């Protein structure tokens, strides 16, 4: 029955296409009446016999090209519906839902031996098994349709050396798991990125970072790595064992081996005092050098179309000498202005088909912001109003709070979003270049001049240099510092049309920053946020640009030696760093 439906559908499509071809024939026949002859009869017979064979072949090809699960053959056929996905087909997407693949190969080993066998067997067969972590990278850098390996089940803390303050952990452990395990030993990590759900292997491989001009990116905390490689099996690299490979592999983008275990240098567990206050560009210019040097952690949150800059400074409680001042307003009072704007905006944008008003009293500030932006995300004037409401929220959130470092340094980034984050040199700690403030001043002017519907915040952070050769913050000079600036557009809706429009607007926003700013400031994108250009010339330009900053030849040489069959690679690596055989 199913096959008959396939054949019938193909026949209908063929009849339709034949009808169109006759109608659109540029040289129509003028002989409206033709004499009957046996030769024309034979010709007609051969023509329609050929059509029948073509229809039959299309039907067979269609049937076997789109397999149904076993239970589908007993279901009623429905014309113009997609065939159900096979049960063994996994859908894997990143957290923001901006990148998704379907794969039949998604492997999760439970121990090192299983991982070694997976990598060995895949290399023998030429089967792709791209390492993928928690899927938090905005660009889906770990995704590979042909196959993936995920270490979520390899999440054990293997050893804690309290004397050296080091921990050896499996790469599938999440940051939150590791921090909880270290508490009983009185240890913690030196610095944190905004999100705690990243796997250790992933946060290391993409060069993630926290903030603090005296603190390097997270890869610099790693003192030893155990890699499972396709060509050389399991190897351990460190500054003492193969230092050249070690400094390549620390930020290796998953292309040099599957990171199985990591040894991390920790610090004593400590409390921080967080001071949040609102400032402006004039005040920041006066105090910027001092704030970078005095504060262990510092970041700025810039609000587009306003003069508001939120400054967040964090320092160890043990060294804090100033009196602590509680927030003047509680969270409920701080968020009231945002709730009021949402209720008023909802009245203006409500239609007969609008859903009922959500219980906004239960929503956090970032959830409210998402709801607000969802009403009209690309209306610049409306986005400006939302940004002003956010500025008011932060003014009422000024004050101090105390907590353990892993609690204080986290940041609620909001809902699904597009992100582009760049890293560029900002002088030295002793002598900041002030290029970081010049960058922000130019970026804000660019946004206003081009009427970009840019939501808040634009987050700016700093780190010390990294010695990892593929880190955007790599430098041979020990006292160099780097600034990291992230621009965003939220995806506060699941409506496919609206998400597409936001995506297009975001890439216009990103392209403005790229063409007007990046080269002038030697800015390079975070590896978890870089996107592959669709235009071939733009891709060549990107490849050329990356070669100016990173040791691409050394990286590709290591890829060929450790993964000669390219089983750990994916489209992103192949486009960014083409090997001679793939150019």
UniProtKB/TrEMBL annotation:
GO terms for biological process: L-ascorbic acid biosynthetic process. InterPro entries: ALO_C, FAD-bd_PCMH, FAD-bd_PCMH-like_sf, FAD-bd_PCMH_sub1, FAD-bd_PCMH_sub2, FAD_lactone_oxidase-like, GL_DH, Oxid_FAD_bind_N. It comes from the Eukaryota. Pathway: Cofactor biosynthesis; L-ascorbate biosynthesis. GO terms for cellular component: membrane. The chain crosses the membrane at residues 48-66. Keywords: Membrane, Oxidoreductase, Transmembrane, Transmembrane helix. Its cofactor is FAD. PROSITE patterns: FAD_PCMH. Residues 98-269 form the FAD-binding PCMH-type domain. GO terms for molecular function: D-arabinono-1,4-lactone oxidase activity; FAD binding; galactonolactone dehydrogenase activity. PANTHER family: D-ARABINONO-1,4-LACTONE OXIDASE (PTHR43762:SF1), L-GULONOLACTONE OXIDASE (PTHR43762). NCBIfam families: GLDHase. This is L-galactono-1,4-lactone dehydrogenase, mitochondrial. The lineage of its organism: Eukaryota, Viridiplantae, Streptophyta, Embryophyta, Tracheophyta. The gene is GLDH.
């Amino acid at each position: 029955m199913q096959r008959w439906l396939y054949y019938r559908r193909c026949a209908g499509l063929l009849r339709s296409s034949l009808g169109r071809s006759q109608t659109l024939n540029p040289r129509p026949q003028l002989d409206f009446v033709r004499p009957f002859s046996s030769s024309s009869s034979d010709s007609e017979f051969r023509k329609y016999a050929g059509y029948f064979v073509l229809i039959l072949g299309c039907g067979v090809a269609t049937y076997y090209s789109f397999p149904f699960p076993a239970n589908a053959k007993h279901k009623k056929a429905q014309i113009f519906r997609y065939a159900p996905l096979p049960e063994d087909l996994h859908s894997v997407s990143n957290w923001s839902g901006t990148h998704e693949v379907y794969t039949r190969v998604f492997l999760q080993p439970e121990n090192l031996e299983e991982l070694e066998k997976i990598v060995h067997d895949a290399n023998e067969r030429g089967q792709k098994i791209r390492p993928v972590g928690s899927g938090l990278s905005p660009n889906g850098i770990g995704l590979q349709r042909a196959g993936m390996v995920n270490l979520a089940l390899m999440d054990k803390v293997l050893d804690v050396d309290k004397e050296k303050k080091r921990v050896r952990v499996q790469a599938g452990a999440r940051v939150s798991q590791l921090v909880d395990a270290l508490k009983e030993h009185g240890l913690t990590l030196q610095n944190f990125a905004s999100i705690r759900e990243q796997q250790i292997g992933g946060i290391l491989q993409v060069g993630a970072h926290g903030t603090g001009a005296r603190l390097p990116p997270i890869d610099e905390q790693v003192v030893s790595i155990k890699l499972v490689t396709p060509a050389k099996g399991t190897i351990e690299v460190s500054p003492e064992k193969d230092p050249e490979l070690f400094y390549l592999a620390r930020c290796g983008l998953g292309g040099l081996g599957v990171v199985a275990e990591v040894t991390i240098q920790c610090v004593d567990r400590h409390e921080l005092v967080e001071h949040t206050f609102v400032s402006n560009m004039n005040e920041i210019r006066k105090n910027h050098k001092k704030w970078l040097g005095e504060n262990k952690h510092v970041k700025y949150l810039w609000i587009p179309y306003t003069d508001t800059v939120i400054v967040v400074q964090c320092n160890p409680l043990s060294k804090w000498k100033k009196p602590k001042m509680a927030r003047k307003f509680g969270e409920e009072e701080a968020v009231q202005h945002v709730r009021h704007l949402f209720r008023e905006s909802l009245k203006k944008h409500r239609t007969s088909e609008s859903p009922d008003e959500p219980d906004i009293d239960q929503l956090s500030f970032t959830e409210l912001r998402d709801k607000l932006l969802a009403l009209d995300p690309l209306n610049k004037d409306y986005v400006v109003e939302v940004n002003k409401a956010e500025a008011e929220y932060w003014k009422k959130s000024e004050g101090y709070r105390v907590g353990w470092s892993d609690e204080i340094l986290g940041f609620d980034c909001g809902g699904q979003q597009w992100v582009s984050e760049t890293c560029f040199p900002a002088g030295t700690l002793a002598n900041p270049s002030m290029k970081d403030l010049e960058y922000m001043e130019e970026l804000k002017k660019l946004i206003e001049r081009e009427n970009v519907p840019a939501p808040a915040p634009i987050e700016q952070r700093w780190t010390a240099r990294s010695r990892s050769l593929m880190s955007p913050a790599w430098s041979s000079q020990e006292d160099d510092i780097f600034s990291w600036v992230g621009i965003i557009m939220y995806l506060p809706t699941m409506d496919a049309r609206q998400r597409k429009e936001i995506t297009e607007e975001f890439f216009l926003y990103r392209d403005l920053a790229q063409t007007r700013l990046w080269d002038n400031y030697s800015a390079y994108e975070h590896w978890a946020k870089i996107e592959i250009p669709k235009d071939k010339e733009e891709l060549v330009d990107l490849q050329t640009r990356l070669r100016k900053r990173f040791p691409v030849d050394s990286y590709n040489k290591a890829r060929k030696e450790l993964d000669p069959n390219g089983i750990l690679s994916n489209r992103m690596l192949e486009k960014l760093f083409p090997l001679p055989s793939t150019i």
